[in-house]
Description:
Blueprint: E1 2-6, H1 10-18, E2 22-27, H2 32-37, E3 44-47, H3 54-64, E4 72-75, H4 81-91, H5 99-104, H6 108-117, E5 125-128, H7 135-142, E6 149-152, E7 163-165, H8 168-177, E8 184-188, E9 194-202, E10 205-214, H9 218-221, E11 228-231, H10 238-254, E12 260-267, E13 274-279, H11 287-294, H12 299-308, E14 322-328, E15 334-335, H13 340-344, E16 349-354, E17 373-379, H14 382-403, E18 405-406
Parallel strand pairs: 1-2, 1-4, 2-3
Antiparallel strand pairs: 5-8, 6-7, 6-8, 9-10, 9-12, 10-11, 11-14, 12-13, 14-17, 15-18, 16-17
Helix pairs in contact: 1-12, 7-8
Amino acid sequence: xxxxxxxxxxxxxxxxxxxxxxxxxxxxxxxxxxxxxxxxxxxxxxxxxxxxxxxxxxxxxxxxxxxxxxxxxxxxxxxxxxxxxxxxxxxxxxxxxxxxxxxxxxxxxxxxxxxxxxxxxxxxxxxxxxxxxxxxxxxxxxxxxxxxxxxxxxxxxxxxxxxxxxxxxxxxxxxxxxxxxxxxxxxxxxxxxxxxxxxxxxxxxxxxxxxxxxxxxxxxxxxxxxxxxxxxxxxxxxxxxxxxxxxxxxxxxxxxxxxxxxxxxxxxxxxxxxxxxxxxxxxxxxxxxxxxxxxxxxxxxxxxxxxxxxxxxxxxxxxxxxxxxxxxxxxxxxxxxxxxxxxxxxxxxxxxxxxxxxxxxxxxxxxxxxxxxxxxxxxxxxxxxxxxxxxxxxxxxxxxxxxxxxx
Length: 407
C-alpha cells in the first residue's frame, strides 16, 4: 500500500515500514535534518510550508507525480488532520476520519456545540468571527456567560495564545492585543481537576483507554505550574475506568468518531466530568509512554494501523505500578546547568529526555510543553507517584539554583 504521511514522526514511519508499506512523506522545513538522515526510508518526499492548507499538500503530490497511486493519507500532526481527510476524499482514498468529524476535532467551538447538542457536559461559550469593535459588542456576544473566562484560538494546540480573563473588559483587551485571537472562542472557565483520557476508537467503540490526572490544569502551566500527569492503573481503579469509558464514548459519539486515536481533556471528578477539548491524534510529550506503561498499548503504531486499515496489536502486560510524566521547570534567560544524568538520578525516574541541553539558554514558557527536560516516573501507587513528580520539580529548582548561570 502507498501511504502519504502528512508530517514526520519517527514512530509512524517505523510502523508503516514494518507493515511493508511504501511511504511518501510531506514535511515542514523544521524537520528537514531528521528527514534527510532517513531519506532512504521514503519512496518520495517533499517539503510543504504548512500542514493545515490542503492545496499545499495536494500540490506537492501532483508535483511528485503520485496523486493517482496513493491509498491513504495519514496525518502525524494535529494541524494536518482535516487536511488529510480532505485529501483522502479528493483522491478517492480510504478515509476513516470523515471531514466533518475531523473538523469537529479541530474547531473548539464546533465540538462544544456538538457536545451541547448531544447532552455531553461542556463549558458554555461564545465565538468571535472577527475583532469586536467595542466593549459593548463583547458584552453583547458573551450574553449571560459568567467570568472568569478562557479565551483561545478556535483551532490551535499546546495552550498557545490561551488567555484567562477575569472580566468582559479583560476579554476585549485580550482579543484586541493578540492577532491570533481576532477569531476566538470565549468560554466560562471550568473548575476542578483536569484529566486526559486517551484511547482508540475501533468501529465506533472506545478501546484501550487511559485515564490520567494533570498535576495542574493546563492553563496554569502558562503561569509556571509544572506540566505533567499521573496515570491511574487500570486494575486498581475499575470504577474510575467504567466512568471515564462511558464519558469518553459519549464525547466521541457526539463528534461522529468511528476510527482513530483520540486525546480528550476533561475537568472535574468521576460522576461530574465536563468535556474540555478533543483531538483525533495521539497525545504529545511523554503521554504515549503513560499509555504504554499503563495500558500496554503504543499510541503512534495504533494511530497509523487504524487509519491504514490494519489490525491492532493486542495490549502487552503491564506492571500495575502508577506512572507519571512531568516537564521540569525552566529559568528564563539562564544557561542550563541541569544534565540528563541529573534527571535520571532523581527518585523514581525510569526515562528522561532533555528539551534544553546543558549550556543552552533557556527560553520562556510560551506553551504547555515548555520544560528543561521531561521525566517518566514510577511510584507504588497514584499518591506515591504524584509525590515523586513534585519532588522531581523541587530537585530541578535546586539544581538550577546551584548549577544554572543567569545570562
